[in-house]
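Hey, resending since the last one bounced:
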Amino acid sequence: MAKLILSMDGLVLKEVPLTKERTTIGRRPHNDVVIDNLAVSGEHAVIVTILNDSFLEDLGSTNGTMVNGQAIKKHFLQNNDMVELGKYKLKYVAETAKQTSANDFEKTMVLRPNMMPKPAATPPAPVPQATPGYNPTSTQVGPMGDPNAARAAQGSAAAAAPQQSAVIQILNGPNAGKELALTKALTTLGRPGVQVAVITRRPQGYFITHVEGTTFPVVNGKNLSLDAHPLNNHDIVELSGTKMEFFFK
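The structure tokens again:
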């Protein structure tokens, strides 16, 4: 579990575990991290945590938010990042089973050569054993060939069908032709410090959201906004100079 370590002038004041999806930071008492200092706005910033990833966003504060000495609006937090709010500092510590270092982060990219996962081999379907009275051409299933039982079985199979899977395929550069299966709830794309976006897998489908960088991702020739954008079959995404195609398999 990731956490924040609040300090001032080298003195640790408290530790805040990031157990919530949204952890707010500000001067007003309703915030999760309260910093009673005039340099800090009432609602200064928020940290959004999705699985093992956390994103810091400045909420239009008066004096701004600094990370590792640079002013940010949105920032993908990495282990040991230092967030500066006036005289106060918040150190981000990713305490997961496998900490997210810069190298680990690159392995989630579609931009790193030779890091594409190979598709798992599909085991052959088992051959049904013949039973007395079994007719392989019959569509009836269940005791005595009951059609209601057949329909119920078909309905159960449909309800259990998994969400349609999708992949991202790189179209240009040294990785052209490589594919990344979007099997995780959240997949991070881009280059830290330059341009970062995430693709989230939701019950309603797949969505892409801008996280970091002054340039927003482009989908089908149009720049995205701050809002999550739904992805459709064969959409073309441009990110950090790389062009990719999103499609269902």
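The longest strand covers residues 195-202.

Sorry for the duplicate.
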